[in-house]
Design brief:
Length: 248
């Protein structure tokens, strides 16, 4: 069942998600060669708690950290560690918070130092795919219109859409109905209505869309070792169209 939110609830979700937007602004300058993903995680937890929020991922189904830090071929759910970033890496940071009873969820992929042209193109295409998906979040459209728009941008750029992980509803639960694939034919699925709130999150691979789960039971990596990027925003559907909750 898709849970509709009223204006007051969407305003509260906006506050929860704004914390993540502020967090990305805060840690972006720290993402430099030499820093460890554990150091980024520690700073993120301190920042979220300083704003009277709680890290949403820490302890969720046993996940041990505040951030998912996925480097290079890691697609999603990377566990922060003592690994030091080096110039040329790309790092996807996925993070959530719980504030005043409502969850937020967002992800960004950052370059570390100077990255290759193909890595930059991958990040650009993923960001553009997210924007394309969000542009379809209007009342009266179908859920798969979002999925179709994402896939079209990704594949037109020569990359592939991950099938194993999808976007989702969000609100008082971190993961609510519906699931939102990043691929599919338009015109299918539930009709979008005012008050729906979604986390839309393209995960895009440089090579094959297939992924493998590592021995830690969490980290998903590309099966062919190619790079992967991940961008995500939480979005509310209003009568005027999409409201990006996780924007500044």
């Amino acid at each position: 069942m898709i849970i509709l939110k009223n204006t007051q609830e969407i305003a509260m979700m906006r506050e929860s998600n704004r914390i993540l937007a502020q967090l990305f602004e805060h840690i972006a300058p720290m993402i430099q060669p030499g820093i460890t993903t554990a150091e980024l995680d520690s700073e993120a937890e301190l920042f979220i708690r300083s704003l009277s929020a709680v890290p949403a991922f820490k302890g969720y189904r046993g996940f041990p950290a505040t951030l998912c830090t996925s480097v290079n071929e890691a697609v999603v759910h990377g566990i922060p560690s003592e690994r030091r970033l080096v110039s040329g890496d790309i790092i996807s940071i996925d993070v959530g918070a719980l504030f005043n009873g409502f969850y937020s969820d967002a992800a960004r992929t950052f370059p570390v130092g100077e990255v290759s042209k193909q890595a930059q193109a991958l990040m650009d295409a993923t960001r553009q795919a997210l924007a394309a998906g969000i542009s379809q979040a209007y009342p009266g459209n179908r859920l798969s219109d979002i999925s179709f728009a994402v896939q079209q941008v990704v594949e037109s750029a020569g990359f592939s859409v991950v099938r194993d992980f999808v976007g989702h509803g969000i609100g008082k639960g971190l993961h609510e109905d519906p699931q939102i694939p990043n691929f599919g034919k338009k015109g299918n699925g539930p009709v979008l209505k005012e008050g729906m709130t979604f986390a839309i999150e393209p995960m895009v691979n440089q090579g094959s869309w297939r992924v493998t789960i590592c021995e830690d039971g969490w980290t998903a990596v590309t099966s062919d070792g190619s790079l992967s990027a991940h961008f995500e925003d939480s979005v509310a559907i209003t009568k005027h169209g999409p409201l990006i909750l996780s924007a500044l």
